[in-house]
Structures are given as C-alpha cells and as structure tokens.
Amino acid sequence: MTLPSEKALVPFVSVDNMMRLVHSIGIEEMLKDLASYVEDDFKRWERFDKTPRVASHSDVGVIELMPTSDGEAYGFKYVNGHPKNTKEGLQTVTAFGLLADVYTGYPVLLTEMTMLTALRTAATSAMAAKYLAPKGSDTMAMIGNGAQSEFQTLAMKAICGLKSVRLYDTDAAATEKCARNLAELGLEVVQCRSPEEAIEGAQILTTCTADKQNAKILTDNMVGAGVHINAIGGDCPGKTELAAGILERSDVFVEFPPQTRIEGEIQQMPEDFAVTELWQVITGEKQGRRDSKQITLFDSVGFAIEDFSALRYIRDRIKGTEFFIDLDMLADPDDPRDLFGMLQRSKV
Ligand code: NAD
C-alpha cells in the first residue's frame, strides 16, 4: 500500500539509466535475477489477471498493450513489432512499461522496456530450457542474429551452462555483429553459412527471426530426436518459424494458451492441439522432459506476467540508487477535489 505523498512523484528509468543499472549489476547476474523473478511469478500463476494482449495490427507491424495484476500491483507494457524497421535504421521491437499500486491506482514506476524486454525474453527462454532441455545441453544453434540474439545466448550461458553457440542469419552482417558482440564473453562462437550447419551438434535450437510470414526456418527433416527448440520469433498472427511436422513430433510448452493459439507456432495447428502450460511444469504439476529422445518445444510469444516480473525487479533494484529520476506526471492537489484550484494557483 502506498499512501499519497505530498507530491506524487513517479520514478522513471531512462534507456541510459537502464544500461547503467545493467552494468552495475552485471548482465549475466541480472539475467539470473530476472529468471528467478519470472520463475517466482510463474509459481503463483493462478493469482494473476490474465488476458491475451491487446493487439492493433497494420500491414507493416503490430502495436500491443500487455496488462496484468497480482492484486497488489498492476503492470502493463506498450510494445511494437515492425520487421521492416531495421531497413529504415529503426528497431523491430521497442517498449516501455508502467507498474502501479492497486490500492491507490497510482503509478510507482515508469521505465524503458526495449532493453528490459530483450533481457526478460532471454531470461524466460533460459528458465524454460532449464526445465525442458536435455541434461548437459551445452551447444545452441542461434538462428536469427538480430537484437535479441546476444541476450538469448548469454542467458543460456548464465542459467543453463551453455558453452558453444552456432550462429546463422540470412544477413551475414547480422551474424558478424553477433559474433563480434559475443567474442570474449566466455563462449565458443561459430559462424555458420546455413541453418543446417548451425544445428549440427546443437541440443538447443533457438529461432529468433523477424518476418511477417509463415516461414519455415526449421523444416521437419532438420530436427532430430532429443533436442529442445526455443521458438521466439513467431509471435503474431501470420508469423511462424517452424514446419507443422515439427510440432506434431514435439511436446509443446506455452505461456498462456489463449494468447499462444492466436500468435504462436501452434496457430498452424487445430484448436484442440495438446499443449502444456509452462507454469505447471515449474510448480511440478506437469512433467517437463520425460526422456532423452523427446523433442521439447517452448513456443514463446512473450506474456504480460514476464513483463510484470521485470517491472517488479526494476522497482526493487533501483531503490536507493541513482539509476532513476522522479517524474512529476500525476496531478495530485493537496485538497483532492480541488484540481481546478491547483490549476488556477499555477497561473503566473
Ligand atoms: P531483429 O529484426 O533485430 O532480428 C531478426 C533477424 O532475423 C535479422 O537479423 C534478420 O536478418 C533475421 N532473419 C530474417 N529471416 C531469416 C531467416 N529466414 N533465416 C535466418 N535469419 C533470418 O529482431 P529481434 O528484435 O531480434 O526479434 C526477433 C523476433 O523475436 C521478432 O519477430 C520479435 O517479434 C520476436 N520477439 C519475441 C519475443 C518473445 O517474447 N517471444 C520477445 C521479443 C521479440
């Protein structure tokens, strides 16, 4: 509970401050912390308000609002997805988010979430892989070497003990960039010329490409037994990365089925296609990986609870630091009914 203060100021974390915060904590440490916040919230899944995100589609992309609440705090993220943007020198995905106190309805945090989305998506992928990937997985194919790729790789290193990453992108410059960024971070980094080469010897296959179409980044014949697929890029209607045959041979784990059936890889499958909710694996209610031959597939689309966890984490971590400024974004007159008087008194 937050009681109204004299002036209701809202902590704001800019992109600059977010980057300083990440470095002050250490990126791998922060990925581990975020994964544990996400894991804690997945364990209390049933306490949350849940709704598929509210999406506004256009020919070139999507703008989405992602709200949720645990009854004490309320959070939402504004996020876009515009695959054509990089050609114009802009990001495919940008985001900001807000956390509020349910008791007063007052915001308690406003923050950039472009960096934070990359971090929370990677932390969630690695948390899922911790439960689903074959024991001893140490090699990952990273297909799609754009903005998310280094984050995905580092989270798998920090949380699952990844030792080697095999990169592939249709744009060799993206692979070059990713390899450069990952050099000297304690991983073997292999640049590959085809997706077939990238998956050689990998136990974890991550697809993280951006294209608004039903693509087949992995075809059925490319996926053998005993791997974990971390499918990140298929996250809106008409945008998928995997051949349907792979889904038929896999055990599919999802965040929130009503959203994933619209946006995820399983949009290609019949409405009653069997999936397991990841939170139930984490609470121990459902089985994750059964045996070493099984193909597990995390059909990730990104769900509001992961953003809520990230917002909670930032709220907790900025306390007592210099990594935020206070914003005067709430009109909060001393006499709550005298909003007009407050306006008049401000006249110069
Ligand atoms: P990005 O545009 O920075 O990178 C995408 C990369 O994919 C580019 O380098 C592009 O050249 C490459 N690519 C496109 N088609 C390819 C193909 N057929 N084979 C190999 N590479 C190909 O985008 P990003 O920010 O890294 O995001 C990637 C995808 O992940 C987007 O679709 C985004 O919507 C999605 N995403 C999902 C989540 C989630 O929670 N699941 C979160 C963030 C982003």
Set out the fold topology.
Elements: E1 10-13, H1 15-25, H2 27-43, E2 54-57, E3 62-69, E4 73-81, E5 95-101, E6 107-112, H3 114-132, E7 139-143, H4 149-160, E8 164-168, H5 172-182, E9 188-191, H6 195-198, E10 204-207, E11 214-218, E12 228-231, E13 240-242, H7 244-249, E14 250-254, H8 257-263, E15 276-277, H9 278-282, E16 295-299, H10 304-318, E17 325-327, H11 339-345
Parallel strand pairs: 1-6, 7-8, 7-10, 8-9, 10-12, 11-13, 12-16, 14-15, 14-16
Antiparallel strand pairs: 1-17, 2-3, 3-4, 4-5, 5-6
Helix pairs in contact: 2-3, 2-4, 2-10, 3-4, 3-10
The structure holds nicotinamide-adenine-dinucleotide.
Nicotinamide-adenine-dinucleotide (NAD) is lined by residues 81, 86, 92-93, 117, 121, 143-148, 169-171, 174, 208-211, 215, 217, 232-233, 235, 300-302.
The low-confidence runs, each spanning 5 or more residues with pLDDT under 50, are: 1-5
Given this structure, which CATH class of the largest domain is correct?
Alpha Beta
Quickly give the structural class.
Answer: alpha/beta
Number of domains: 2
- CATH homology-level superfamily of the largest domain: NAD(P)-binding Rossmann-like Domain
Terminal residue distance: 36 Å
Q: For the largest sheet, list the strands in their spatial order.
A: 9-8-7-10-12-16-14-15
Number of helices: 11
Shape field: globular
Q: Overall mean pLDDT score?
A: 96
**Biggest β-sheet strands, sense, barrel:** 8 strands, parallel
Please give the radius of gyration in angstroms.
Answer: 21 Å
Question: How much strand content do the residues show?
Answer: 15-25%
Q: What is the CATH third-level topology name of the largest domain?
A: Rossmann fold
Number of strands: 17
